[in-house]
Design a protein that fits this description.
The structure holds two protein chains of two kinds. By secondary structure, chain A is an alpha/beta fold. Chain A has helices spanning 4-16, 37-46, 70-82, 95-108, 135-148, 162-175, 196-205, 220-228, 244-250, 276-291, 298-320, 326-336, and strands spanning 24-30, 53-54, 57-65, 88-91, 112-114, 128-130, 153-159, 181-188, 209-213, 234-236, 258-261, 342-343, 348-349, 365-370, 373-376. Chain A folds into two domains: 4-133 and 284-362, Response regulator (Rossmann fold), CATH 3.40.50.2300; 139-261, Rossmann fold, CATH 3.40.50. Classes of the chains: A alpha/beta, B mainly alpha.
Chain lengths: 378, 347
């Protein structure tokens, strides 16, 4: 029933505030079903916790479901932009879906907050602002840790999809300059019943460490396979894996696994002077209050940070034009490009015309599974 | 490739192949008896594996509620039919199977959820939850259309598949779960480490196949199913109810799906949509058997297992492509031969 709530709320809000002229409309397309469901549900949940105003103006969310299907996401984006005349669009859960939405946002000149990475060249990102940490930023933390611990060779096993490719290419980007050799490129699918073949191949190469390019509970299968077959060296994951379910599924086998993630997962363990600490703690508290203890995850934080960016940009844009007009959308885009020091749950955002993500090293920490929970690695 | 590698991969292939073989058998039973290409076969796997894992987490799985609701719908529909014909002789049976049984399973599930260590009880409850779905799904989705064309039945199958996957997401959430049946017990044979789980899988598959063989060869019900498979009208003339055969074959399919689900739950992470892909590989095995021959399908499934295991070693990124490309030469070869069941089946 939880899933229907944001929709009904959105509807109720839309009826109640139809008379209000100065209202910002934000269109959202997310996949809480389909292959991205495990992330999408969290993304969607966060919208139940959103404030009622953005930049001092009342805000209305129109949330549509795209089943993690790029075609449906594109259809939703068109509908939101042409029929509902949204001032900004947010979405979606997977890289292909988000990319589809981004292309439409560019074409229609609608500011977009991308909630997952986008596969577009930099010159096609004029209207796109990305919330999640770029994969290279995260993998650079992993490589730094490898370097500090004398890792010379690394085996890779990842999803046989664009996520697996993205993690591998980011790993390569930093591993090669650091003198770390990637000795295997194995692939598997989330629904596979076994990864024996891939694991044996990695064991044959006997690398100093293994990087898993899976996400969520999908990251557990290779680690369980490796540990079962007696691999004792360090296994690294990526930020798609750092959630509670991963540990639940992996049990003892995933003890000691290291993953990069946003500060959001372990706000209690951050030093007191970290600017993210209060924001992340507040968000986690209200999220866990609404959805149960231990439900914390990075994805809900992306939705929230995306809203924070809009929140910071709207006030400025509203001075130049009225919401619902092309001028407002242009002003909102310009203003988004110049937001400074927006403290979110994942990092501190400083947008520039050349950097539409605006995150720095503060947006990543390494965590390790320690006695069945993710703990900050100091 | 040395001997130990080959042995490792072979072990993996046999374990996976055994599961695919079971599913291939289920698909063939259903297809030959009812002409339904049973796409939702895989959902029984997910439902069983996830129900088991949920019970182990000390919760009552949502599938229990679905079972009660589906049973009620069936009872109402059949009860209405009885009221129209004023023939209430089967009423006790109807109530027993569609209302009493689901409620009993629910009570057992509730009790079992409070005993997270009692594995056999959980397995029993899981079987109790999943198996009745077989005949209920047949009653609701296929029985009214029993004489429709294969294509219509296939489309219905796809619809049922999507419904069950969607419900699976509602019941179990998007993240995967794992169950454990036997404790992590491994023993070494030469260079191989064999887990109790994998022996359990292969043994259960072999036992189930032998039981099915005996069932089809030596029992009245089994023979009735075979008769329906050979000639639907002829078997009706000698007093075999098509409806009953349909329900029985779907119950068998559900039983096989449930057992496969319980078998794989401890060796891999199962998601609400995992079953589909596993059943699809079983389907490749069934295709190799021409959707008609059990032994060839079993061998074909084993072949799929080997292909999967070895291709995951040599070219893991192309694994699925390699497995599913197998269908093309098989179909070519099949279409050159004279065995074309589809045509025989047209009435």
């Amino acid at each position: 029933m939880n899933k229907l709530l944001p929709l009904t709320l959105g509807l109720a809000v839309s009826f109640a505030s139809a008379a209000v002229a100065q209202e910002v409309t934000i269109g959202v397309t997310l996949g809480a079903t389909g292959p991205g469901a495990s992330l999408g549900i969290h993304y969607k949940n966060a919208f139940q916790l959103m404030p009622k105003t953005a930049g001092g103006l009342p805000v209305k969310f129109i949330i549509l479901e795209d089943n993690t299907d790029p075609t449906a996401a594109a259809k939703n984006a068109r509908k939101l932009i042409t029929e509902d005349k949204v001032d900004a669009i947010m979405g979606s859960v997977s890289v292909p879906s988000t990319t589809q939405v981004a292309m439409i946002a560019n074409e229609t000149k609608t500011p977009m907050i991308a909630l997952s990475p986008v596969a577009l060249p930099p010159d096609k990102r004029e209207w796109i602002f990305t919330v999640p940490q770029p994969v290279p930023l995260m993998m650079s933390a992993v490589v730094e840790h490898m370097k500090a611990h004398g890792v010379k060779t690394v085996g890779y096993i990842g999803f046989s999809d664009s996520w697996g490719d993205l993690v591998l290419s980011s790993l390569k980007q930093f591993a090669e300059p650091a003198g770390i050799k990637i000795v295997t490129d194995e692939r598997y699918a989330r629904a596979d019943t076994s990864v024996t073949g891939q694991v044996i191949k990695i064991l044959g190469a006997n690398p100093d460490a293994v990087v898993v390019g899976g996400s969520g509970t999908g990251g557990a299968l290779p680690q369980i396979g490796l540990v079962e077959r007696g691999y004792k060296k360090q296994i690294y994951h990526n930020h798609g894996t750092a959630n509670r379910e991963f540990i639940k599924v992996g049990g003892k086998s995933v003890e000691g696994a290291i993953a990069p993630t946003g500060a959001l997962l372990v706000p209690e363990e951050l030093p007191a002077d970290n600017p993210l600490k209060p924001v992340a703690t507040d968000f986690i508290n209200s999220y866990e209050k609404a959805f149960g203890a231990g439900t914390r995850n990075g994805f809900a934080g992306y939705s929230y940070d995306g809203f924070k960016l809009l929140d910071a940009a709207v006030a400025d844009a509203a001075k130049k034009a009225k919401p619902g007009t092309p001028e407002f959308r242009q002003a909102l885009r310009d203003s988004l490009e110049n937001v400074k020091n927006v403290v979110g749950t994942h990092g501190v955002y400083n947008m520039t015309p050349t950097d539409h993500t605006g995150l720095d090293n503060r947006a990543r920490v390494l965590v390790r599974v320690d006695n069945g929970a993710w703990r900050l690695l100091k | 490739m040395n001997l130990s590698l080959a042995l490792w991969l072979t072990q993996d292939a046999v374990v996976n192949g055994a599961v695919y073989a079971l599913l291939a058998l289920a698909l063939i039973v259903v297809y030959t008896v009812t002409r339904v290409i049973f796409v939702p076969q895989g959902e029984f796997i997910s439902f069983a594996a996830l129900s088991l894992a949920t019970l182990q987490n000390g919760k009552v799985p949502g599938t229990v509620h679905l079972l009660i609701a589906t049973g009620l719908v069936v009872a109402v529909l059949d009860g209405w039919r009885m009221a129209k014909t004023r023939d209430f002789s089967r009423l006790p049976r109807l109530v027993l199977f569609n209302i009493a049984l689901p409620l009993a399973v629910a009570a057992l599930a509730w009790w079992s959820a409070s005993r997270p260590t009692d594995v056999w009880l959980q397995v029993l409850v899981t079987l109790g939850i999943v198996i009745p779905f077989g005949s209920m799904i047949y009653r609701l989705a296929y029985q009214p259309l029993a004489s429709a064309s294969i294509l219509v039945l296939l489309i219905v199958s796809v619809a049922v598949h999507y419904m069950m996957v969607g419900l699976g997401l509602v019941f179990f959430g998007g993240e995967g779960l794992r169950a454990s049946i036997f404790p992590g017990f491994n023993f070494d044979v030469g260079i191989l480490t064999i887990s109790l789980q994998s022996i359990g899988i292969v043994l259960s598959s072999v036992v189930l196949m032998v039981v099915l063989w005996l069932y089809f060869g030596y029992t009245v019900y089994g023979k009735a199913l075979r008769a329906t498979a050979m000639n639907r009208i002829g078997s009706r003339l000698v007093g075999i109810s098509t409806e009953f055969s349909g329900k029985l074959s779907f119950t068998l399919a559900a039983l096989i799906g449930a057992i496969s689900g319980i078998l794989i739950a401890p060796i891999t992470t199962v998601y609400y949509d995992t079953g589909f892909l596993i059943a699809l590989k079983g389907f490749v095995g069934a295709i190799i058997g021409g959707m008609g021959s059990y032994p060839i399908a079993a061998v074909g499934s084993l072949l799929v297992g080997f292909l999967e295991s070895y291709s995951s070693f040599w070219a893991s990124s192309f694994k699925e492509s390699i497995i599913f490309t197998l269908i093309i030469p098989v179909l070519l070869w099949r279409s050159l031969g004279k065995h074309r069941i589809e045509e025989e089946e047209e009435e």
